[in-house]
Design a protein that fits this description.
- By secondary structure, the chain is an alpha+beta fold.
- A 4-stranded antiparallel sheet has the order 2-3-1-4, with no helix packed on it.
Length: 98
């Protein structure tokens, strides 16, 4: 399955957020788990306005169902929750044959 997790981060917290995402990515790699592809929404007015919420997305491909609780645990013990400007929205999709 592929999981798409999106949320918002205040533009003033972007540098700290990126440091924490790199730490998370390293922890995932150390545990032989997939690292995220990290995307920031383009044409978001918040990208140039201080103190505005920017939309970010993590993409995890070809993960198993037990991956999400593991990821949630790693995030809980990180500094990421205090940097999120909104709730994390998780959507997962499975491949289908066409």
């Amino acid at each position: 399955m592929n999981c798409y997790i999106y949320y918002r981060v205040t533009s003033t917290e972007q540098a700290a957020f990126l440091v924490e995402v790199r730490r998370l990515s390293s922890k995932l790699q150390s545990a032989n788990l997939p690292r995220p592809q990290l995307l920031r929404k383009i044409n978001d007015p918040a990208n140039t306005a201080p103190s505005q919420l920017q939309t970010w997305m993590e993409i995890y491909t070809d993960v198993q169902e037990d991956f999400l609780p593991t990821l949630a645990g790693l995030i809980t013990v990180s500094e990421l929750p205090i940097l999120f400007g909104s709730e994390r929205h998780v959507e997962c999709f499975e491949d289908t044959q066409i």
